[in-house]
């Protein structure tokens, strides 16, 4: 039981790290000009995170639907 919980935690950490890396690369300028996100960056990150979770949920549904009972 503990092993399953540990696997789940590792999966979630990996998912978070991939999400962070992907959206950072896509949305944040390479040269930091301000200490906070500008409006465009903030909007891009919001959209990126939303799409990432949507796709993750879709893949999870497809995988669970294809598993034999």
UniProtKB/TrEMBL annotation:
Membrane topology category: Peripheral membrane protein
Domain Tim10-like, residue spans: 3-63
One annotated Gene Ontology cellular component of this protein: mitochondrial inner membrane
Subcellular location: Mitochondrion inner membrane
Molecular function terms from GO: metal ion binding
Domain of life of the organism encoding this protein: Eukaryota
Biological processes annotated in GO: protein insertion into mitochondrial inner membrane; protein transport
Keywords, sorted A to Z: Chaperone, Disulfide bond, Membrane, Metal-binding, Mitochondrion, Mitochondrion inner membrane, Protein transport, Translocation, Transport, Zinc
Extent of the signal sequence: none
InterPro entries xrefs: Tim10-like, Tim10-like_dom_sf
Keyword Transport assigned: yes
Subunit: Heterohexamer.
Role: Mitochondrial intermembrane chaperone that participates in the import and insertion of some multi-pass transmembrane proteins into the mitochondrial inner membrane. Also required for the transfer of beta-barrel precursors from the TOM complex to the sorting and assembly machinery (SAM complex) of the outer membrane. Acts as a chaperone-like protein that protects the hydrophobic precursors from aggregation and guide them through the mitochondrial intermembrane space.
Comment, domains: The twin CX3C motif contains 4 conserved Cys residues that form 2 disulfide bonds in the mitochondrial intermembrane space.
Protein name (database record): Mitochondrial import inner membrane translocase subunit
Annotated source species: Ceratopteris richardii (Triangle waterfern)
């Amino acid at each position: 039981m503990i092993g399953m919980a540990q696997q789940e935690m590792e999966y979630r950490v990996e998912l978070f790290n991939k999400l962070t890396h992907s959206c950072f690369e896509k949305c944040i300028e390479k040269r930091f000009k301000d200490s906070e996100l500008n409006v465009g960056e903030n909007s891009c990150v919001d959209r990126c995170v939303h799409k990432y979770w949507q796709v993750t949920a879709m893949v999870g549904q497809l995988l669970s639907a294809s598993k034999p009972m």
